[in-house]
Design brief:
It is built from 13 helices and 32 strands. The strands form 7 sheets. It has an 8-stranded parallel β-sheet with strand order 8-16-14-13-12-11-10-9. Strands 24, 26, 27, 28, 29, 31 and 32 form a 7-stranded mixed β-sheet that branches. Helix content is 26%, strand content 29%. By secondary structure, the protein is α/β, with parallel strands linked by helices.
Length: 708
């Protein structure tokens, strides 16, 4: 039987083995024996098996009794399953639940999805009706089951992609208001304002930047043209430190040419900086570490990272600890507690040089492949465990995890001979969703797909070819880009077929000509997910737009000529930029609340009033006057830390900074006149102790005091 797994309902590995059992129909003939799972008692299990759905794909599918799992309560109990039917029933249930949930959340979905739901259900019901008969034609039943599966799989993918495209608009864009004013602070209506995105905050990666990781301008140019802005420097330990304390930085300086990569504008990570694996050679883990004591190993790690970070801290801020949960990532024979000590030393050595350094822990996204198990005694040898258990361990032990890196090799055949399960889009989506629970940034550290069909491998929609590769790329990137916590996606490993880890998995052919997948990726990054436009300022001198996060070039066509400016959009944030003839400034965001309300509110003489305020500087740090004033029935008053004043006096003078919410004052209303009170909180960036109206930013909340 082909590769198959049993897991719990969270897709985590569970105890159990595949055996073969004889029933009444097999007699003593083992060739007729049925596959049978031996499973733990009282634990719901899920079955993962490869299955060919005609017209859709040869993919990994799930049977899980409509998300309830299969449970045995007593020894020698058994459940006999019609696996084809269980797969179809489980798939339709998953599709229907997502369909109902997504509609209830208010998403607009394609009309074809309703038809797919109905068709999948109808075919399944017809199969169930035939199965209920004492005599039935299994071929006819299997045909109906496969038609139900085909409708459910296609419909589920379209449903999730519709939702993803809506979420991209929600999570990847920010709102920008551009206000054109003259030197006297008056709005300038009727001028043409153009905006064009020039960079992305999201990390669109690819690597390596040359065959066998040797930097090649040819690679960098073609990737830069496609919108790639991210890569990594391969920090193979044994190459960098061939003997303890002896460093060969030419591996990075010359072979990978880090300065050229920076010149191209690539953001860089220190990749595979700690692995403990030789992976068939000695380039990643130096063999001299095998004979070290734990203390010697920790000293080696600490000193290595100090040396590495001292040299590259200006260019590299993220450092990767790789695949530590896999069985081959322990060539030095450590326990889990000892491994934790090495991670702390790695982090401490790095931060002793660069306190702002960040750390990425990465591994295989799928928890149950490669024979991975569950975490047991942390004082025992650190064997292979699933990545979620590993993350739970290190996070609970206080290890600094800034980003979780996920590897997605779930199609085709790897060059090392391994054939992974082929995952369709709903399973890809589920994997991305599972890691959201950690509330940490996610990096799709490695992803690629084949452009050729290899014997013994699965397929998706069509046998793998260049067009199918491009379509899989498009849909995978759409799903991943839509997830709020995903900060980047890297096509890796291998930009061209010459060095791709998946056979035929490059964006470029061996002769370096681009495949359709390259053009698809380029179109996503530089066209579909890049914002450009223009507008005419209204009577308030304003033009507004919603744009993908990143840098923007702003062009204003004044009556006396054109002027150019720069701005930045942040995802899920609203910003206003004031454009003067000779400058552009982002407005700080100010907020003032009365009794936790934006107002207006009503209070009574016996009540209390709490005034809270906050400032988001939005990257600004210029000096400013900070003001708190209140307009009352008996006049205008200014608040200072010494008390209320009737003359124009700032509350504070100093640089703009993010404050978070803070309580400015809390006062009883039992001794104030009835009437309306307007509280103003503002800053102006001309720090002179006077209100500069053309550079004032403020918010107001209104409170009405009246008798009950």
């Amino acid at each position: 039987m082909a590769k198959n797994w049993i897991t719990d309902l969270d897709d985590l590995p569970t105890e159990g083995k595949l055996h073969f059992a004889k029933d009444g129909g097999s007699g003593q003939d083992w060739k007729k024996a049925l596959p049978a799972y031996i499973v733990p008692l009282n634990r719901p299990i899920r079955i993962h098996v490869p299955y060919e759905v005609p017209g859709f794909g040869n993919i990994s599918v799930i049977a899980d009794n409509e998300s309830n799992g299969y449970v045995l309560e007593h020894q020698s109990d058994f459940i006999e399953l019609n696996l084809n039917y269980e797969i179809a029933k489980s798939k339709f249930s998953a599709f229907q639940k997502d369909y109902q949930r997504i509609i209830s959340e208010g998403y607009a979905i394609s009309p074809s999805i309703h038809e797919k739901v109905n068709n999948a259900e109808t075919y399944l019901q017809e199969a169930e009706a035939l199965l209920s008969k004492s005599s039935h034609d299994m071929k006819e039943i299997i045909d109906l089951i496969n038609q139900s599966l085909r409708e459910a799989f296609y419909g589920h993918e379209v449903l999730l992609l519709d939702k993803a495209r809506a979420d991209i608009e929600r999570y990847r864009k920010g709102k920008i208001k551009l206000q054109v004013i003259d030197m006297n602070g008056r709005p300038v209506p009727g001028v043409l304002v153009s905006y064009k995105q020039s960079s992305h905050d999201f990390l669109f990666g690819a690597n390596p930047m040359g065959y066998l990781s040797q930097f090649d301008d040819k690679y960098a140019l073609v990737l830069k043209e496609a919108g790639i802005n991210y890569s990594y420097i391969l920090c193979s330990w044994a190459s960098l430190e061939p003997s303890p304390g002896v460093y060969e930085f030419g591996v990075i300086d010359e072979y990978q040419n880090i300065t050229r990569q920076i010149e191209y504008g690539f953001n860089l990570m220190g990749g595979l900086a700690l692995w403990f694996s030789d992976v068939g050679d000695a380039s990643f883990m130096p063999l001299y570490q095998i004979d070290m004591s734990l203390d010697e190993l920790k000293d080696n790690i600490y000193n290595h990272m100090r040396a590495l970070v001292s040299r590259y801290k200006d260019w590299i801020k993220d450092w990767e600890i790789t695949e530590q949960n896999l069985p081959f990532a322990n060539m030095v024979g450590l326990t889990w507690e000892e491994k934790l000590e090495t991670y702390r030393v790695f982090i401490n050595g790095t931060k002793s040089v660069d306190p702002e350094a960040k750390f990425i822990f990465s591994s295989l996204a799928l928890p149950y492949e490669q024979g991975l198990g569950r975490l047991g005694d942390v004082n025992q040898y650190a064997g292979g465990i699933c990545f979620p258990d590993f993350l739970d361990l290190i996070i609970n032990k206080g290890i600094q995890v800034d980003t979780i890196g996920l590897e997605f090799y779930y199609s085709g055949k790897n060059t090392d001979g391994y054939i992974p399960p082929t995952l369709e889009l709903s399973q890809i989506n589920n994997l991305l969703e599972k890691y959201q629970k950690y509330s940490k940034p996610l990096l799709v550290r490695e992803f690629s797909a084949p452009s050729v069909q290899v014997d013994g491998t699965g397929w998706w929609h069509h046998e793998w070819d260049e067009q199918t590769q491009a379509e899989y790329l498009r849909d995978f990137y759409t799903l991943a880009f839509s997830k709020r916590l995903v900060k980047g996606i890297s096509w890796s490993f291998g930009v061209s077929d010459k060095d791709a880890y998946i056979i035929g998995g490059g964006l470029l052919r061996e002769d370096f000509t681009p495949k359709p997948s390259y053009h698809t990726l380029k179109n996503l990054i530089t066209s579909i997910w890049t914002t450009t436009g223009q507008g005419i300022t209204d009577e308030n001198g304003q033009v507004s737009f919603s744009g993908f996060a990143g840098d923007y070039e702003i062009r204003v066509e004044y009556a006396d000529g054109v002027r150019n400016y720069k701005a930045h959009a942040y995802k899920q944030r609203d910003l206003t930029y004031r454009i003067l003839p000779n400058s552009i400034k982002v407005e700080p965001t100010l907020d003032i609340k009365a009794n936790a309300s934006d107002g207006p509110i009503t209070v009574y003489p016996s009540g209390m009033l709490s005034i809270c305020a906050s400032v988001k500087a939005n990257g600004r740090s210029d000096k400013a006057d900070w003001w708190l004033a209140v307009s009352t029935p008996v006049g205008l008053f200014f608040y200072t830390f010494e008390g209320w004043r009737t003359d124009e006096s700032p509350m504070y003078q100093g640089k703009l900074f993010d404050t978070g919410d803070f309580e400015v004052l809390s006062i009883p209303f039992d001794a104030v006149p009835l009437g309306t009170y307007s509280f103003y909180f503002g800053v102006d960036d001309h720090m002179d102790g006077k209100i500069s109206w053309n550079s004032l930013y403020y918010d107001v909340v209104t409170v009405k005091v009246e008798e009950k």
